[in-house]
C-alpha cells in the first residue's frame, strides 16, 4: 500500500497535539540509551555547578516509507548550531549538541569535506633508508605522512580548543535523522535538563519539518512509480515550544529561531511566536543575510508579563557584522552567544528579584 493509496482516515481535521503525537508515534529504539548518557552528562555538570545549553542543529527528515528509500528534508547544513556550540563552550557552558547525523559539528566543521578538506593538508614523503649493521637494512619503504596546513596557527587554535573540551568533558553529542527522532529526543533531553532549573538554556537552531506522515499512514515498502503522480497528505507536526514552556522545562531559558526569506516578516513572526508560546527570545534570521545580521526579539522589560494585565510590549535588538569582517573570519555567532550569555545571567538573577 502506498501513501497515495492509503485509505486510513486523515487526521488533518484534528491536528496532532504533542500529547497525542507521543501517544501514537513510536519512540526511536536508541532513546533509552541516549537518555541514560544525557542523564550522566547532566549530573556531572550539576556536580560542578556548570550551566548547560542544549543546542539543536541541522534539518530533520520525513520518511515516506517504513523501509525508507525516499524522504523529505529540511534545509540546514548545521553551521549555525555547530558554530554556536563552540562559542558556548568558550563561554564556560557545557553543551549537549543534538544534531542531524552527518551535519556539521563543533571544531571539525573547520575542516569539513568542503572547507579545508583535510587530505589536502597531507603529504607523502619518502622515508630515509636505515642500515643497522652490515647485513640488516631496515627498509622504511612506506612513505611518511606529514601535515602541511595552509594556516597552521588556525589549525593549532582549533585543535587546542578541541583537545581542551575533550579533556574537560563539556561536550556531549546526540544525533537524530527523522523529525520523529528529533521530537522524542527534544522532549526527553528537556526533561533531563529540567533538573538544572534556570541554569539550563535551550538554543533551538534546528530546522524542523512542519509536516510529517504518521506511521499508520506510511507505505511499508518503496512507493511504486508505475501509477503516475504521487499525492501525499501530510499531518502537521505538533508545536513543541508550548509544552516545553508549560510542562517539560518551565524554568529554562528558551531561545528559538525564525527563518524567513522576506526580512519584513521576521519581527512580526517572532513577536507572534513569543505571544503564542511565552518563551524568552526569538532570533530572526533571513536566509541570505543570516551570517551577517540577526534580530533578537523579546518581551520588553517594561511589560509586566502578566496575561490580561497589560498588552505585552516587545523589544528588538539587531546584531550585525561587516561582510568584510566575516570574510576575515569574524562569525556572528560570537556576538549572538555573548548577548545570550548576558541575558541568561540576568534571567538567573531575576529569580530572586
Ligand atoms: O544550519 P545553517 O545552514 O547555518 O542554517 C541555520 C538555520 C537558518 C536553519 C537556523 O538559523 C534557523 O533559523 N533555524 C530555525 C528554522 C525555522 O524557521 O524553524 P521553524 O519556524 O520551523 O521553527 C521555529 C523554532 O521552533 C525553531 O527554533 C525550531 O528549532 C523550533 N521547533 C519547531 C518545530 C518543532 N516541532 N519543534 C521545534 O523545536
From TrEMBL:
InterPro entries: CoaB-like_sf (IPR035929), DNA/pantothenate-metab_flavo_C (IPR007085)
Region described as Disordered: 1-29
Pfam family, one: DFP
A GO term, aspect molecular function: ligase activity
Keyword presence, Ligase: yes
This protein's UniProt keywords: Ligase
The keyword ATP-binding belongs to this UniProt entry's keyword annotation: no
Biased composition (Polar residues): 1-17
Residue ranges occupied by any DNA/pantothenate metabolism flavoprotein C-terminal domain in the UniProt entry: 51-106, 172-290
Domain of life: Eukaryota
One biological process term in Gene Ontology: coenzyme A biosynthetic process
Stretches that traverse the bilayer: none
Family: Belongs to the PPC synthetase family.
Name assigned to this protein: Phosphopantothenate-cysteine ligase
Native organism: Sanghuangporus baumii (Phellinus baumii)
